[in-house]
Amino acid sequence: MKISFKNDYAEGAHPAILEALMKTNLTQQAGYGLDDYSLEAKALIREKIKNPNAQIHFVSGGTQANLLVIAALLHPLRKRYCPRYCPYCRQRNGRY
Fold this sequence. Notes:
mainly alpha, 4 helices, 0% strand, extended
């Protein structure tokens, strides 16, 4: 079987994730990162990186995470340049 990682939206969820979702599907939680699962995940990440004061924010996907990093690193007036052969830019611009 050939495995290809096209992007983070092209694959289904791991069976263990689906099972966890089935167990918690009817549990009501606060939204926008204030749910028990997000708070627990943030605590675990802070523990792993040994920084109890770390600000941790979850985003919905890899593209959003990439845009946040690019925006944080570049001056607002600078343009992001990407070569034509760059898979990231080709995928986002619809050119393969």
